[in-house]
Protein backbone atom coordinates (compact mmCIF):
# COMPACT_ATOMS: atom_id res chain seq x y z
CA UNK A 1 0.00 0.00 0.00
CA UNK A 2 1.27 3.45 -0.93
CA UNK A 3 1.87 5.86 1.93
CA UNK A 4 -1.19 7.94 2.77
CA UNK A 5 -0.24 11.60 2.99
CA UNK A 6 -1.92 14.95 2.59
CA UNK A 7 -0.56 17.12 -0.23
CA UNK A 8 -1.40 20.73 -1.05
CA UNK A 9 -5.11 19.91 -0.92
CA UNK A 10 -5.76 16.59 0.80
CA UNK A 11 -5.08 12.90 0.15
CA UNK A 12 -5.69 11.47 -3.32
CA UNK A 13 -5.37 7.98 -4.71
CA UNK A 14 -6.42 5.72 -7.55
CA UNK A 15 -9.79 4.10 -6.85
CA UNK A 16 -9.55 0.40 -5.88
CA UNK A 17 -5.73 0.51 -5.70
CA UNK A 18 -5.10 3.21 -3.09
CA UNK A 19 -8.49 4.81 -2.52
CA UNK A 20 -10.24 1.79 -1.00
CA UNK A 21 -13.01 1.43 1.56
CA UNK A 22 -10.49 0.21 4.13
CA UNK A 23 -8.21 3.20 3.57
CA UNK A 24 -11.12 5.66 3.62
CA UNK A 25 -12.20 4.15 6.94
CA UNK A 26 -8.62 4.42 8.21
CA UNK A 27 -8.23 8.08 7.29
CA UNK A 28 -11.68 8.88 8.69
CA UNK A 29 -10.62 7.23 11.95
CA UNK A 30 -7.52 9.41 12.03
CA UNK A 31 -9.64 12.54 11.53
CA UNK A 32 -12.03 11.35 14.24
CA UNK A 33 -9.10 10.91 16.61
CA UNK A 34 -7.97 14.45 15.84
CA UNK A 35 -11.46 15.86 16.44
CA UNK A 36 -11.93 13.95 19.68
CA UNK A 37 -8.49 14.99 20.94
CA UNK A 38 -9.57 18.63 20.58
CA UNK A 39 -12.80 18.03 22.48
CA UNK A 40 -14.92 18.84 19.43
CA UNK A 41 -16.55 15.45 18.82
CA UNK A 42 -19.96 16.50 20.09
CA UNK A 43 -20.22 19.14 17.36
CA UNK A 44 -20.18 16.55 14.57
CA UNK A 45 -18.70 16.68 11.08
CA UNK A 46 -20.26 17.55 7.73
CA UNK A 47 -19.73 14.92 5.00
CA UNK A 48 -19.79 15.94 1.34
CA UNK A 49 -18.90 14.16 -1.89
CA UNK A 50 -18.68 14.79 -5.62
CA UNK A 51 -19.96 12.80 -8.62
CA UNK A 52 -17.14 10.25 -8.91
CA UNK A 53 -17.44 6.48 -9.06
CA UNK A 54 -18.75 4.93 -5.79
CA UNK A 55 -19.04 8.40 -4.26
CA UNK A 56 -22.17 7.56 -2.26
CA UNK A 57 -20.70 4.35 -0.88
CA UNK A 58 -17.46 6.04 0.17
CA UNK A 59 -19.43 8.83 1.88
CA UNK A 60 -21.51 6.28 3.78
CA UNK A 61 -18.31 4.56 4.92
CA UNK A 62 -17.07 7.90 6.28
CA UNK A 63 -20.32 8.49 8.17
CA UNK A 64 -20.31 4.98 9.64
CA UNK A 65 -16.75 5.33 10.91
CA UNK A 66 -17.47 8.74 12.42
CA UNK A 67 -20.46 7.24 14.22
CA UNK A 68 -18.29 4.38 15.49
CA UNK A 69 -16.08 7.00 17.09
CA UNK A 70 -19.04 8.82 18.67
CA UNK A 71 -19.18 11.67 16.15
CA UNK A 72 -22.36 12.74 14.37
CA UNK A 73 -22.23 12.86 10.57
CA UNK A 74 -24.19 15.57 8.79
CA UNK A 75 -24.42 13.98 5.36
CA UNK A 76 -25.01 16.44 2.52
CA UNK A 77 -27.86 15.50 0.23
CA UNK A 78 -26.47 14.42 -3.14
CA UNK A 79 -23.26 15.62 -4.80
CA UNK A 80 -22.14 18.84 -3.12
CA UNK A 81 -19.38 21.29 -4.14
CA UNK A 82 -16.41 21.70 -1.83
CA UNK A 83 -17.21 25.38 -1.07
CA UNK A 84 -20.81 24.47 -0.22
CA UNK A 85 -19.65 21.64 2.05
CA UNK A 86 -17.31 24.12 3.74
CA UNK A 87 -20.12 26.65 4.14
CA UNK A 88 -22.26 23.91 5.73
CA UNK A 89 -19.76 23.81 8.63
CA UNK A 90 -21.01 27.24 9.64
CA UNK A 91 -24.64 26.20 9.18
CA UNK A 92 -24.27 23.26 11.55
CA UNK A 93 -21.65 24.89 13.81
CA UNK A 94 -19.77 21.66 13.17
CA UNK A 95 -16.20 20.74 14.07
CA UNK A 96 -15.34 20.64 10.38
CA UNK A 97 -16.08 18.65 7.25
CA UNK A 98 -14.82 15.70 5.26
CA UNK A 99 -15.12 16.20 1.51
CA UNK A 100 -14.61 13.26 -0.83
CA UNK A 101 -13.30 14.54 -4.15
CA UNK A 102 -10.30 14.40 -6.42
CA UNK A 103 -11.20 17.85 -7.72
CA UNK A 104 -9.84 18.32 -11.28
CA UNK A 105 -7.88 15.06 -11.42
CA UNK A 106 -8.59 12.16 -13.84
CA UNK A 107 -11.65 9.95 -13.18
CA UNK A 108 -9.57 7.02 -11.89
CA UNK A 109 -8.79 9.12 -8.79
CA UNK A 110 -10.78 10.04 -5.74
CA UNK A 111 -9.67 12.11 -2.79
CA UNK A 112 -10.22 13.01 0.85
CA UNK A 113 -10.15 16.58 2.14
CA UNK A 114 -10.46 17.60 5.78
CA UNK A 115 -11.85 21.11 6.25
CA UNK A 116 -11.51 22.39 9.85
CA UNK A 117 -14.08 24.40 11.80
CA UNK A 118 -12.99 27.72 10.24
CA UNK A 119 -14.35 26.47 6.85
CA UNK A 120 -11.05 26.69 4.96
CA UNK A 121 -8.39 24.16 3.90
CA UNK A 122 -6.50 22.41 6.69
CA UNK A 123 -3.12 23.92 7.51
CA UNK A 124 0.03 21.75 7.58
CA UNK A 125 0.16 21.40 11.38
CA UNK A 126 -3.36 19.91 11.29
CA UNK A 127 -2.73 17.47 8.44
CA UNK A 128 0.56 16.47 10.07
CA UNK A 129 -1.32 15.46 13.21
CA UNK A 130 -3.83 13.49 11.14
CA UNK A 131 -1.00 11.74 9.29
CA UNK A 132 0.58 10.80 12.62
CA UNK A 133 -2.78 9.32 13.66
CA UNK A 134 -2.84 7.31 10.43
CA UNK A 135 0.61 5.87 11.15
CA UNK A 136 -0.42 4.89 14.69
CA UNK A 137 -3.63 3.27 13.51
CA UNK A 138 -1.70 1.29 10.89
CA UNK A 139 0.49 -0.04 13.69
CA UNK A 140 -2.54 -1.07 15.74
CA UNK A 141 -2.38 1.81 18.23
CA UNK A 142 -5.94 2.86 19.19
CA UNK A 143 -4.84 6.49 18.94
CA UNK A 144 -7.01 7.62 21.88
CA UNK A 145 -10.14 6.85 19.89
CA UNK A 146 -13.31 6.26 21.88
CA UNK A 147 -14.57 3.24 20.00
CA UNK A 148 -18.12 4.17 20.97
CA UNK A 149 -21.03 2.84 18.97
CA UNK A 150 -23.68 5.56 19.15
CA UNK A 151 -27.37 4.84 19.61
CA UNK A 152 -29.59 4.11 16.64
CA UNK A 153 -30.12 7.21 14.50
CA UNK A 154 -26.93 8.99 15.56
CA UNK A 155 -26.33 9.61 11.90
CA UNK A 156 -29.94 9.46 10.84
CA UNK A 157 -29.03 12.13 8.31
CA UNK A 158 -27.57 9.46 6.05
CA UNK A 159 -29.02 10.08 2.61
CA UNK A 160 -30.62 7.64 0.25
CA UNK A 161 -31.31 8.67 -3.32
CA UNK A 162 -34.26 7.57 -5.42
CA UNK A 163 -33.96 6.85 -9.12
CA UNK A 164 -34.97 10.43 -9.79
CA UNK A 165 -32.07 11.66 -7.65
CA UNK A 166 -34.28 13.11 -4.91
CA UNK A 167 -32.94 12.89 -1.38
CA UNK A 168 -34.98 11.05 1.22
CA UNK A 169 -34.71 10.81 5.00
CA UNK A 170 -32.62 13.96 5.22
CA UNK A 171 -33.36 17.37 6.65
CA UNK A 172 -29.94 18.70 5.67
CA UNK A 173 -29.33 20.16 2.25
CA UNK A 174 -27.03 23.20 2.23
CA UNK A 175 -28.07 24.26 -1.31
CA UNK A 176 -30.65 26.89 -0.34
CA UNK A 177 -28.71 28.40 2.61
CA UNK A 178 -25.61 28.65 0.42
CA UNK A 179 -27.60 30.27 -2.40
CA UNK A 180 -29.07 32.78 0.07
CA UNK A 181 -25.60 33.61 1.38
CA UNK A 182 -23.98 33.95 -2.03
CA UNK A 183 -26.87 36.18 -3.16
CA UNK A 184 -25.81 38.60 -0.43
CA UNK A 185 -22.16 38.48 -1.50
CA UNK A 186 -22.82 39.11 -5.23
CA UNK A 187 -24.98 41.88 -6.75
CA UNK A 188 -27.56 39.73 -8.51
CA UNK A 189 -29.91 42.67 -9.02
CA UNK A 190 -27.30 44.43 -11.15
CA UNK A 191 -26.64 41.21 -13.07
CA UNK A 192 -30.35 40.81 -13.76
CA UNK A 193 -30.73 44.36 -15.08
CA UNK A 194 -27.86 43.88 -17.56
CA UNK A 195 -29.79 41.31 -19.66
CA UNK A 196 -26.77 39.04 -19.88
CA UNK A 197 -26.53 35.83 -21.86
CA UNK A 198 -24.30 33.19 -20.26
CA UNK A 199 -23.23 29.67 -21.24
CA UNK A 200 -22.46 27.28 -18.35
CA UNK A 201 -20.36 24.11 -18.35
CA UNK A 202 -20.23 22.38 -14.92
CA UNK A 203 -18.10 19.62 -16.52
CA UNK A 204 -20.32 16.79 -15.15
CA UNK A 205 -19.22 17.71 -11.63
CA UNK A 206 -20.66 18.53 -8.23
CA UNK A 207 -21.41 22.12 -9.29
CA UNK A 208 -24.35 21.06 -11.48
CA UNK A 209 -27.38 23.23 -10.70
CA UNK A 210 -25.71 26.06 -8.81
CA UNK A 211 -24.74 28.71 -11.35
CA UNK A 212 -27.78 27.99 -13.49
CA UNK A 213 -30.14 28.31 -10.51
CA UNK A 214 -28.63 31.51 -9.16
CA UNK A 215 -28.25 33.26 -12.52
CA UNK A 216 -31.58 31.96 -13.74
CA UNK A 217 -33.31 33.44 -10.70
CA UNK A 218 -31.63 36.75 -11.53
CA UNK A 219 -33.12 36.68 -15.04
CA UNK A 220 -30.01 35.78 -17.03
CA UNK A 221 -30.55 34.01 -20.36
CA UNK A 222 -28.78 30.66 -20.02
CA UNK A 223 -27.43 27.78 -22.05
CA UNK A 224 -26.18 24.81 -20.01
CA UNK A 225 -24.43 21.62 -21.10
CA UNK A 226 -22.45 18.77 -19.49
CA UNK A 227 -24.91 19.07 -16.60
CA UNK A 228 -25.59 15.38 -15.93
CA UNK A 229 -23.60 12.99 -13.76
CA UNK A 230 -20.78 11.19 -15.57
CA UNK A 231 -18.02 9.64 -13.42
CA UNK A 232 -15.81 9.57 -16.55
CA UNK A 233 -16.32 13.31 -17.18
CA UNK A 234 -17.02 12.83 -20.85
CA UNK A 235 -13.64 11.20 -21.37
CA UNK A 236 -11.59 14.23 -20.35
CA UNK A 237 -10.36 15.96 -17.19
CA UNK A 238 -12.85 17.99 -15.12
CA UNK A 239 -10.35 20.85 -15.21
CA UNK A 240 -11.58 24.18 -16.64
CA UNK A 241 -8.54 25.34 -18.63
CA UNK A 242 -7.92 26.87 -22.01
CA UNK A 243 -7.27 23.40 -23.43
CA UNK A 244 -10.40 21.69 -22.07
CA UNK A 245 -13.00 24.38 -22.76
CA UNK A 246 -13.07 24.39 -26.57
CA UNK A 247 -16.76 23.51 -26.71
CA UNK A 248 -17.58 26.30 -24.26
CA UNK A 249 -15.58 28.75 -26.39
CA UNK A 250 -17.47 27.70 -29.52
CA UNK A 251 -20.87 27.93 -27.85
CA UNK A 252 -20.13 31.40 -26.47
CA UNK A 253 -19.16 32.70 -29.88
CA UNK A 254 -21.95 30.92 -31.75
CA UNK A 255 -24.61 32.15 -29.35
CA UNK A 256 -23.32 35.69 -28.95
CA UNK A 257 -23.04 35.21 -25.18
CA UNK A 258 -21.44 37.70 -22.83
CA UNK A 259 -19.67 34.98 -20.81
CA UNK A 260 -18.89 31.29 -20.60
CA UNK A 261 -18.54 29.92 -17.07
CA UNK A 262 -17.07 26.52 -16.15
CA UNK A 263 -16.44 24.65 -12.90
CA UNK A 264 -14.07 21.83 -12.07
CA UNK A 265 -15.10 18.47 -10.59
CA UNK A 266 -15.89 19.81 -7.12
CA UNK A 267 -16.65 23.41 -8.19
CA UNK A 268 -13.88 25.04 -6.17
CA UNK A 269 -12.00 26.18 -9.30
CA UNK A 270 -13.28 28.30 -12.15
CA UNK A 271 -12.88 28.66 -15.89
CA UNK A 272 -14.03 31.79 -17.70
CA UNK A 273 -14.51 32.42 -21.43
CA UNK A 274 -14.94 36.00 -22.61
CA UNK A 275 -17.50 37.11 -25.20
CA UNK A 276 -14.87 36.84 -27.98
CA UNK A 277 -14.23 33.18 -27.13
CA UNK A 278 -10.93 33.83 -25.38
CA UNK A 279 -9.99 32.01 -22.18
CA UNK A 280 -9.42 34.40 -19.28
CA UNK A 281 -6.60 32.96 -17.19
CA UNK A 282 -6.68 33.16 -13.38
CA UNK A 283 -3.65 35.46 -13.58
CA UNK A 284 -5.84 37.81 -15.64
CA UNK A 285 -9.05 37.36 -13.67
CA UNK A 286 -7.56 38.06 -10.25
CA UNK A 287 -6.39 41.59 -11.22
CA UNK A 288 -9.77 42.12 -12.91
CA UNK A 289 -11.52 41.26 -9.68
CA UNK A 290 -9.17 43.31 -7.47
CA UNK A 291 -9.73 46.29 -9.78
CA UNK A 292 -13.50 45.78 -9.60
CA UNK A 293 -13.57 45.47 -5.81
CA UNK A 294 -11.57 48.69 -5.45
CA UNK A 295 -13.14 50.85 -8.16
CA UNK A 296 -16.74 49.64 -8.35
CA UNK A 297 -17.37 48.47 -4.80
CA UNK A 298 -15.03 50.91 -3.11
CA UNK A 299 -13.39 48.19 -1.03
CA UNK A 300 -9.97 48.83 0.46
CA UNK A 301 -7.69 46.21 1.93
CA UNK A 302 -4.74 43.93 1.28
CA UNK A 303 -4.61 41.07 -1.20
CA UNK A 304 -3.23 37.56 -0.65
CA UNK A 305 -1.59 35.59 -3.44
CA UNK A 306 0.71 32.62 -3.81
CA UNK A 307 4.34 32.89 -4.85
CA UNK A 308 3.34 31.67 -8.33
CA UNK A 309 0.61 34.27 -8.94
CA UNK A 310 0.82 37.48 -10.98
CA UNK A 311 2.58 40.57 -9.64
CA UNK A 312 0.04 42.76 -11.41
CA UNK A 313 -1.80 42.50 -8.10
CA UNK A 314 1.26 44.04 -6.44
CA UNK A 315 1.28 47.00 -8.82
CA UNK A 316 -2.38 47.62 -8.12
CA UNK A 317 -1.96 47.26 -4.36
CA UNK A 318 0.79 49.88 -4.38
CA UNK A 319 -1.53 52.30 -6.20
CA UNK A 320 -4.33 51.58 -3.73
CA UNK A 321 -2.00 51.94 -0.74
CA UNK A 322 -2.43 48.32 0.35
CA UNK A 323 -0.22 45.36 1.26
CA UNK A 324 0.31 42.10 -0.59
CA UNK A 325 0.77 38.88 1.36
CA UNK A 326 2.78 36.31 -0.58
CA UNK A 327 2.47 32.67 0.45
CA UNK A 328 3.60 29.20 -0.63
CA UNK A 329 1.45 27.43 -3.23
CA UNK A 330 -1.76 26.05 -1.71
CA UNK A 331 -5.02 27.78 -0.91
CA UNK A 332 -4.68 26.86 2.75
CA UNK A 333 -2.11 29.64 3.06
CA UNK A 334 -4.37 32.07 1.21
CA UNK A 335 -7.23 31.19 3.54
CA UNK A 336 -5.02 31.77 6.57
CA UNK A 337 -4.11 35.26 5.33
CA UNK A 338 -7.75 36.05 4.64
CA UNK A 339 -8.68 35.09 8.18
CA UNK A 340 -5.79 36.86 9.87
CA UNK A 341 -5.10 39.87 7.61
CA UNK A 342 -8.65 40.85 6.55
CA UNK A 343 -7.74 40.62 2.86
CA UNK A 344 -10.38 41.74 0.36
CA UNK A 345 -9.20 39.10 -2.11
CA UNK A 346 -7.15 35.94 -2.02
CA UNK A 347 -6.24 33.91 -5.09
CA UNK A 348 -3.85 31.61 -6.89
CA UNK A 349 -2.82 31.10 -10.50
CA UNK A 350 -4.29 27.61 -10.56
CA UNK A 351 -7.86 28.92 -10.41
CA UNK A 352 -8.89 29.36 -6.79
CA UNK A 353 -10.18 32.52 -5.12
CA UNK A 354 -12.34 33.94 -2.38
CA UNK A 355 -13.25 37.44 -1.19
CA UNK A 356 -13.95 39.21 2.08
CA UNK A 357 -17.34 38.29 3.51
CA UNK A 358 -17.18 34.72 2.20
CA UNK A 359 -15.62 31.55 3.61
CA UNK A 360 -11.79 31.25 3.40
CA UNK A 361 -12.12 28.41 0.87
CA UNK A 362 -11.73 28.64 -2.89
CA UNK A 363 -15.07 28.86 -4.67
CA UNK A 364 -15.57 28.54 -8.43
CA UNK A 365 -19.29 29.34 -8.15
CA UNK A 366 -18.48 32.65 -6.49
CA UNK A 367 -15.86 33.42 -9.17
CA UNK A 368 -18.32 32.85 -12.00
CA UNK A 369 -20.96 35.07 -10.39
CA UNK A 370 -18.41 37.83 -9.80
CA UNK A 371 -17.42 37.65 -13.48
CA UNK A 372 -21.05 38.29 -14.40
CA UNK A 373 -21.21 41.16 -11.88
CA UNK A 374 -18.14 42.76 -13.46
CA UNK A 375 -19.53 42.61 -16.99
CA UNK A 376 -22.87 44.00 -15.78
CA UNK A 377 -21.30 46.79 -13.72
CA UNK A 378 -18.70 48.02 -16.23
CA UNK A 379 -20.82 47.55 -19.34
CA UNK A 380 -18.00 45.96 -21.32
CA UNK A 381 -16.34 42.59 -21.85
CA UNK A 382 -13.72 41.24 -19.46
CA UNK A 383 -11.11 41.77 -22.20
CA UNK A 384 -12.20 45.39 -22.45
CA UNK A 385 -11.84 45.91 -18.69
CA UNK A 386 -8.47 44.15 -18.80
CA UNK A 387 -7.25 46.55 -21.47
CA UNK A 388 -8.14 49.44 -19.17
CA UNK A 389 -6.13 47.81 -16.38
CA UNK A 390 -3.10 47.22 -18.60
CA UNK A 391 -3.14 50.82 -19.80
CA UNK A 392 -3.19 52.04 -16.21
CA UNK A 393 -0.80 49.58 -14.57
CA UNK A 394 1.29 48.18 -17.42
CA UNK A 395 1.27 44.92 -19.36
CA UNK A 396 2.46 41.61 -17.91
CA UNK A 397 2.61 38.20 -19.62
CA UNK A 398 2.49 35.00 -17.56
CA UNK A 399 2.98 31.34 -18.42
CA UNK A 400 3.66 28.07 -16.62
CA UNK A 401 5.63 25.22 -18.15
CA UNK A 402 5.53 21.68 -16.76
CA UNK A 403 8.78 19.93 -17.66
CA UNK A 404 9.17 16.19 -17.10
CA UNK A 405 12.48 14.51 -16.29
CA UNK A 406 13.67 11.11 -15.12
CA UNK A 407 14.15 10.56 -11.36
CA UNK A 408 17.92 10.65 -11.91
CA UNK A 409 17.73 13.89 -13.89
CA UNK A 410 15.51 15.42 -11.23
CA UNK A 411 18.14 14.89 -8.55
CA UNK A 412 20.87 16.32 -10.80
CA UNK A 413 18.77 19.42 -11.43
CA UNK A 414 18.02 19.82 -7.74
CA UNK A 415 21.74 19.71 -7.05
CA UNK A 416 22.32 22.43 -9.67
CA UNK A 417 19.51 24.54 -8.23
CA UNK A 418 21.21 24.53 -4.84
CA UNK A 419 24.19 26.25 -6.46
CA UNK A 420 22.17 28.48 -8.80
CA UNK A 421 22.96 32.14 -8.09
CA UNK A 422 22.68 34.03 -11.40
CA UNK A 423 23.40 37.74 -11.26
CA UNK A 424 21.25 38.45 -14.27
CA UNK A 425 18.66 36.86 -16.54
CA UNK A 426 17.48 38.04 -19.97
CA UNK A 427 19.76 41.07 -19.68
CA UNK A 428 18.24 42.18 -16.37
CA UNK A 429 19.89 42.23 -12.95
CA UNK A 430 18.48 39.79 -10.40
CA UNK A 431 17.09 42.04 -7.67
CA UNK A 432 15.72 39.44 -5.22
CA UNK A 433 15.83 35.72 -4.57
CA UNK A 434 12.83 34.21 -2.77
CA UNK A 435 12.88 30.66 -1.43
CA UNK A 436 9.40 30.60 0.10
CA UNK A 437 8.34 27.72 -2.17
CA UNK A 438 10.90 26.69 -4.77
CA UNK A 439 13.36 29.28 -6.11
CA UNK A 440 12.00 32.59 -7.36
CA UNK A 441 14.17 35.27 -8.94
CA UNK A 442 12.73 38.77 -9.28
CA UNK A 443 14.47 40.97 -11.84
CA UNK A 444 15.17 44.69 -11.65
CA UNK A 445 12.37 45.53 -14.13
CA UNK A 446 9.77 43.50 -12.21
CA UNK A 447 9.83 40.35 -14.35
CA UNK A 448 10.31 37.09 -12.46
CA UNK A 449 10.85 33.37 -12.79
CA UNK A 450 9.92 30.63 -10.31
CA UNK A 451 11.13 27.02 -10.36
CA UNK A 452 9.20 24.51 -8.24
CA UNK A 453 10.00 20.80 -8.21
CA UNK A 454 7.08 18.44 -7.75
CA UNK A 455 7.09 16.68 -4.41
CA UNK A 456 5.81 13.41 -5.87
CA UNK A 457 6.87 13.25 -9.54
CA UNK A 458 10.03 13.77 -11.64
CA UNK A 459 8.61 17.09 -12.74
CA UNK A 460 9.57 20.76 -12.58
CA UNK A 461 7.13 23.63 -12.89
CA UNK A 462 8.62 26.81 -14.33
CA UNK A 463 6.58 29.98 -13.91
CA UNK A 464 7.56 33.13 -15.80
CA UNK A 465 6.05 36.61 -15.80
CA UNK A 466 7.52 39.23 -18.10
CA UNK A 467 6.89 42.73 -19.38
CA UNK A 468 6.65 41.61 -23.03
CA UNK A 469 6.39 38.38 -24.98
CA UNK A 470 10.00 38.39 -26.14
CA UNK A 471 11.25 38.67 -22.58
CA UNK A 472 8.99 35.81 -21.52
CA UNK A 473 10.39 33.53 -24.21
CA UNK A 474 13.95 34.56 -23.43
CA UNK A 475 13.53 33.87 -19.71
CA UNK A 476 12.05 30.45 -20.39
CA UNK A 477 14.87 29.53 -22.73
CA UNK A 478 17.63 30.75 -20.42
CA UNK A 479 16.23 28.78 -17.48
CA UNK A 480 16.02 25.63 -19.61
CA UNK A 481 19.62 26.07 -20.75
CA UNK A 482 21.04 26.93 -17.33
CA UNK A 483 19.36 23.96 -15.67
CA UNK A 484 19.62 21.68 -18.72
CA UNK A 485 15.86 21.07 -18.77
CA UNK A 486 14.39 20.61 -22.25
Explain what this protein looks like in three dimensions.
With 486 residues, the chain is an alpha/beta fold. It folds into 3 domains: 11-173, Alpha-D-Glucose-1,6-Bisphosphate, subunit A, domain 3 (Alpha-D-Glucose-1,6-Bisphosphate, Chain A, domain 3); 177-393, Alpha-D-Glucose-1,6-Bisphosphate, subunit A, domain 3 (Alpha-D-Glucose-1,6-Bisphosphate, Chain A, domain 3); 397-483, TATA-Binding Protein (2-Layer Sandwich), CATH 3.30.310. The protein has helices spanning 21-37, 55-68, 82-92, 124-138, 175-185, 188-193, 210-218, 246-255, 282-295, 312-320, 331-341, 364-378, 382-393, 407-418, 469-483; strands at 11-14, 45-49, 73-75, 96-100, 109-116, 160-161, 167-168, 197-201, 221-224, 259-263, 270-274, 279-280, 303-306, 324-327, 345-348, 352-355, 397-404, 424-425, 428-434, 439-443, 448-453, 459-466. It has a 6-stranded antiparallel beta sheet, covered by helices on one side. The chain has a 5-stranded mixed beta sheet with strand order 1-5-4-2-3, sandwiched between helices. β6 (160-161) and β7 (167-168) form a beta hairpin. α1 (21-37) packs across α2, α1 (21-37) crosses α4 (124-138) and α9 crosses α13 (382-393). The radius of gyration is 23 Å and the shape is globular. It starts with 10 loop residues before the first strand and ends with a helix. The model is unreliable at 145-166 (pLDDT under 50).
